[in-house]
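User: Can you recover a sequence for this backbone? Please restate the input before giving your answer.

Assistant: Of course. Working from this structure:
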């Protein structure tokens, strides 16, 4: 498949996503999707559709243990993606002279990607034609499930520290220490240690609860079921001709998951149809985030994949590397807005930045995904197994 054919393949996938967005905008403009309805659809997608899709993909994998062994690098890849994003985001904030009330948000916008919804949609649309063309060897959504085991937890942890969401706990710890010192100076060391333990446990509990979102729970449950042959055989046929007792349950879960791409695009369309304040942040900062998130980040990750595929990632499939590349080029995660609201940063700037990224996504994503498809089938880029 030549470069032009790769661009056409990518364009078809993006065009399908944009058509779904178009339908969603029509439904929103026609008041079929209201503000309350958008929130409901978002909750349905996060708590039901994405978990069902990922659970069904994990169960459909014929050898889950081998998947984990061969795709192990996707377990630690989130550390690299977040670390690179923090560095690039810091550079964007400095170069574009981001406003003080938007600096942390600027870094977060570049660092955290939309991996739970848009990445799933893109891989669902790109997977079949790429498998047919021989560019990848397995369903990329299955590989994404490995990546999503730790990424949400890391996202909330790094985001909480970036936006200073743990400062409140530090203040509580200081107040507790001061109170203890005032009441009994002789127990200073013990009180300080107890306050530290309480703050640490509270922070750890918050990180775990934030990271264990429904998609992550679904992936972990899917892996547990798949690794136990007796359980796996209840849902999926272990050999041709077998009739799994709970096969109908798997069918229902699979069918629910198939509704995820259009519903997620409807939620996105409802957000985009509201527009944004063009003066919320300087244009230089807005364009800097666009360049850093959707051009510079994927370029750096493409170089990283080139190196990793020749060193520690020799056993990883092209599907794993496709996941690594796709999650680096998707627009910023919508959940950034939650962190921004809690930290008091500029919410209007976040809305404008996300709006700009999605307006540019049809062109930029088509180009980047076309390049990725061409690279993944090039022996000079990925050495043959």
């Amino acid at each position: 498949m030549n470069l032009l054919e790769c661009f056409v393949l990518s364009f078809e996938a993006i065009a399908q996503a944009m058509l779904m967005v178009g339908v969603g905008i029509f439904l929103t403009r026609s008041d079929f999707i209201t503000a309350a309805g958008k929130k409901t659809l978002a909750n349905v997608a996060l708590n039901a559709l994405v978990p069902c899709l990922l659970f069904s993909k994990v169960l459909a994998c014929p050898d889950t243990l081998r998947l984990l062994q061969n795709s192990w690098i996707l377990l630690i890849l989130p550390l690299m993606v977040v670390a690179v994003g923090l560095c690039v985001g810091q550079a964007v904030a400095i170069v574009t002279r981001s406003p003080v009330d938007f600096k942390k948000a600027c870094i977060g916008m570049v660092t955290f990607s939309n991996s739970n919804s848009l990445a799933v949609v893109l891989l669902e649309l790109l997977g079949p034609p790429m498998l047919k063309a021989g560019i990848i060897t397995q369903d990329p959504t299955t590989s994404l499930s490995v990546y999503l085991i730790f990424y949400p937890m890391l996202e909330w942890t790094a985001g909480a520290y970036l936006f200073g969401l743990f400062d409140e706990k530090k203040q509580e710890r200081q107040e507790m220490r001061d109170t203890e010192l005032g009441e009994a100076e002789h127990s200073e060391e013990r009180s300080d240690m107890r306050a530290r333990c309480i703050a640490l446990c509270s922070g750890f509990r918050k990180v775990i609860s934030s990271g264990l979102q429904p998609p992550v729970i679904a992936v972990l449950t899917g892996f547990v079921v798949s690794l136990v042959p007796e359980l796996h055989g209840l849902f999926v046929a272990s050999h041709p001709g077998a009739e799994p007792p709970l096969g109908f349950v798997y069918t229902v879960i699979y069918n629910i998951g198939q509704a995820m791409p259009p519903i997620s695009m409807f939620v996105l369309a409802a957000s985009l149809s509201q527009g944004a304040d063009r003066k919320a942040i300087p244009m230089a900062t807005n364009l800097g985030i666009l360049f850093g998130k959707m051009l510079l980040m994927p370029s750096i990750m493409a170089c990283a994949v080139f190196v990793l595929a020749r060193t520690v990632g020799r056993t990883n499939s092209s599907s794993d590397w496709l996941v690594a590349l796709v999650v680096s080029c998707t627009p910023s995660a919508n959940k950034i807005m939650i962190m921004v609201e809690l930290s008091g940063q500029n919410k209007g700037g976040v809305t404008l930045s996300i709006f700009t990224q999605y307006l540019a996504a049809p062109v930029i994503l088509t180009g980047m995904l076309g390049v990725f498809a061409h690279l993944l089938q090039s022996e000079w880029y990925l050495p043959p197994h």
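That completes the design. The CA atoms of residues 6 and 373 lie 6 Å apart.
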